[in-house]
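Possible regression after last week's pipeline update?

I re-ran a chain I had predicted before the update to compare outputs. Posting the input and the new output here so someone can diff against the archived version. Not blocking, just want to make sure nothing changed silently.
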Amino acid sequence: MANLSSHGVLLVAAGSILWGSSGIAGQYILQGQGISPEWLTFFRLFVAGSLLLLISHLMGKDIVSVWKSSAERLRLIIFGCLGMLGTQYCYFACIKVSNAAAATVLECGTACVKNGFRGGRKSSVPFSPSSVRSSSRQPAT
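New output (post-update):
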């Protein structure tokens, strides 16, 4: 169990380092090299998506099964266009006119506001301690 925990800590540390350095690299590319946010967004999403598909294929996963269901296809397209493309473009556009720190605060802040509005429409607070306890007791299906 300790080995699995150490592996998790290493993955979190690596993710944090990569996330932090991507903002700094983005600021250097956008402000120092004159690259447009549109190009950088396309390039980043294209390379990341290609790598994820390649890794999934090499691991033996069926990478086309998500396209078989029309409902899943629609959800994937909406998430890709609004979620990934919109967030990444706005992040890099913010870096272009300000800096990586401001873009990170705005990106994380909008997620908090969105989740706050979503939770305010429901009758209970999302992820309340009681809902976490009750869901952890249910057997996995």
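Follow-up from reviewer: compared with the archived run. Residues 8 and 127 are 23 Å apart (CA to CA). Marking as no regression found.
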